[in-house]
Amino acid sequence: MAKPSKENSPITEHLAYLLAQANREINRQLELRLSKEGVPVEQWRILKVLSDGNGHSMGELAGAVLLNHPTLTKMIDRMVSDTLVYRVQDPNDRRKVLMFISDRGKVLCRKLNSLAVDQEEHILESYGDKSTSELKRLLESLIDSSN
Amino acid sequence: MAKPSKENSPITEHLAYLLAQANREINRQLELRLSKEGVPVEQWRILKVLSDGNGHSMGELAGAVLLNHPTLTKMIDRMVSDTLVYRVQDPNDRRKVLMFISDRGKVLCRKLNSLAVDQEEHILESYGDKSTSELKRLLESLIDSSN
DNA sequence: CTTCAATTCTTGAATATTCAATATTTTCAA
DNA sequence: TTGAAAATATTGAATATTCAAGAATTGAAG
What sequence ranges are listed for the domain HTH marR-type (chains A, B) (predicted)? Predict the structure, then answer.
């Protein structure tokens, strides 16, 4: 009897692949909804993080929205042009830039939130309440265990 | 008592975000290992799919490795230059191109597989056998329910 | 105090990805 | 059989991302 070897297991059985596939699919669905407002997913994340009204530095934001630093800078440039957010130099540490959400940004963010909630509800329906919360729990713990 | 509103839930509680975060982290780890051979994750996936020795069309491959069509074409161009894979026109349908893995590709694929297995084992250790298989199960079912 | 290393953000060039258009072949209806 | 529509892959231009270098500020050791 041959020993089952991991080396030959199909790509579809790898955790990394399943994560990529699921992420891609869910992200695609979310993109589709947010495109109603013409906003990419990352911009929604940025608005959402800033919507606590506090200033957030670029470094902080980059971590929170899963973008690397230069990419974030350029995306923020666009959002500033669209007057969704604005920059303020941190008075306590002038290397830093604090980002704030504008009123226009807040209005947009509310619309986007409700589109996103639509999606989550759609997932809950087709995938189930129990599976969803269990999946979230497992993902959180995976992320934890990776640090 | 205020009704708990999903609209204000922090971004970190959204399934889409947790998936993105987990995917990013696991992918980063895998990238790190594969970089020992100087190969991006997508190329490993391509080699792995082709390593069944059968010819696979570009469309098929694009679906399997989660790349869109033009991106795949250009990545395959690079891999052909590196003589890891080669193109053959499908004799049954000359619109199609069948991709095959070369001997050099096979050798590289074996090395990459063992690097990837290293990672999976590392995950099993820190995250646990049970959680891992449960997570995989849930991801598969999420992907299923999204079609 | 001064200077040197570390931190934070931005910029520009190199690279990669995507969108739209194109070329080729097949399918299928008239 | 012919001609129009669909399927498949590639190309080139437009966009976006990344890497490496740079500018500004802070921290901290001497």
Answer: 12-144
Q: What span, in angstroms and rounded, lies between the C-alpha atoms of A3 and A140?
A: 33
B60 CA to C29 C1' in angstroms comes to 28
- What six digits make up the tokens of B135? 């997570």
B101: β partners: B85
A106, two tokens: 């807040």
Q: Which of residues 66-95 of B touch strand C (CB under 7 A)?
A: 67-68, 70-71, 74-75, 93-95
- What gap in Å lies between CA B100 and CA B86, rounded to an integer? 5
Asked if A27 lies within 8 A of B17 by C-beta distance, the reply is no
Contact A126, B145 (CB under 8 A): yes
Structure tokens at B19: 């998936």
As a whole number of angstroms, the distance between CA B8 and CA A96 comes to: 27
pLDDT higher at B81 or A6: B81
Q: Tokens 């990394």 — which residue? A: A16
**Which residues of chain A are within 8 Å of residue B111 when distances are taken between CB atoms?**
none
Helix (H) or strand (E) holding A56: strand A56-57
| B127 within 8 A of A141, measured Cβ to Cβ | yes
Tens place of pLDDT per residue across chain B (147 aa): 554 566 678 999 999 999 999 999 999 999 999 999 999 999 999 999 999 999 999 999 999 999 999 999 999 999 999 999 999 999 999 999 999 999 999 999 999 999 999 999 999 999 999 999 999 999 999 999 987
| Domains of chain A, start order | 39-140 (1.10.10.10)
Cα torsion for B90, B94, B96, B98, to the nearest 10°? 20
Q: Residue A2 carries which DSSP code?
A: P
